[in-house]
Amino acid sequence: MKYLVYILKRLVSLIPVLLGISFIVFFLIRLIPGDPAATLLGSHATPDAVRELRNQLGLNQPLWSQYLTFLGHLLTGDLGFSYVYDSPVGGLIGASLPVTIWLLVSGTVFTLLIAVPLAVLAAARRNGILDNIIRTVPIAGLGLPAFWLGIMLILVFGLKLKLFPVAGFGDTLGAHIHGIILPGITIALTLAPILIRSLRASMIDVLSSDYIVTAHAKGISTSRVVLGHALRNAAVSSVTVLGVNIAYLTGSTLVVERVFSLPGIGQQMINSILGRDFPTVQGITLIFAIMVVVVNLLTDVTHAALDPRVKLS
């Protein structure tokens, strides 16, 4: 019951955050140089035609009136209309958002598959050869940019070994899974070093605790102590680290989507910026912001599930 109350409180606290996001997104888009009406009509448009289109789009209204109209439409799920694509913005985002979600989920899964075993091995063999290797190699790759890692993976596993497609997302479930592996690994290689360092430090701290020493004294096997007792307690702080970095990567997936030609909202964002499609840019920016908020909420909820003290505070 207390856990549900905690979740409800967190959901209620998101309301002013979401309102603030809508306010910031709306006014930041208005700071972009250029007239949307003139952009839509082209360089040969007459001033009268531009003026008429501005009236049709409501761009002549005061900003506060435009914002209230935007907010009213937003509350009904209407993100506006793209005159560049001649389609509702919600439909454009709905077609590309699943690809970005696939990318984030695959990146998170590969990050956990890489980071958790390596961090546990490093902590269990502290200051040994394996620990030094695990600490050195991932950190050495931490400074490598995601676009370079993606290109290297394409060259090796896509073009040379021909194990994975080099671009696109496919049309079937199998093709989706096959096409998202290299982009997911690209994200994991940039995120795993941070999680390895955090989880290793937490594991070392937990393994020196009194209850771990007692568990060893009772004859419990090392693997059971490490995996059954130490890992869960060490994961509490690392969950926050993972959540914060996933939230950060949510807005930077456009780089990976561009490298692998994935039709996600990051790719759609770039195309919309190049085409001066302001309603779509505004809608995608808002969706990105909401995704970051949702990731942070899931992080807090997971943290509360692992640490009961959070729910009682």
The domain tally reads: 2
Which stretches of 5+ consecutive residues score pLDDT under 50?
Answer: none
Identify the CATH class of the largest domain. Mainly Alpha
Find the structural class using helix and strand composition: mainly alpha
What is the fold named in CATH at topology level of the largest domain?
MetI-like fold
Q: How much of the sequence is in beta strands?
A: under 5%
Gross geometry: globular
Order of helices and strands: HHHHEEHHHHHHHHH
At CATH's second level, what is the architecture of the largest domain? Orthogonal Bundle
Major sheet: order of its strands?
A: 1-2
Number of helices: 13
The termini sit apart by 14 Å
Strand count, sense and barrel status of the largest sheet are: 2 strands, antiparallel
Mean pLDDT: 81
Identify the CATH homologous superfamily of the largest domain.
MetI-like
Radius of gyration, Cα only, in angstroms?
24 Å
How many beta-strand elements?
A: 2
What is the percent of helical residues? over 70%
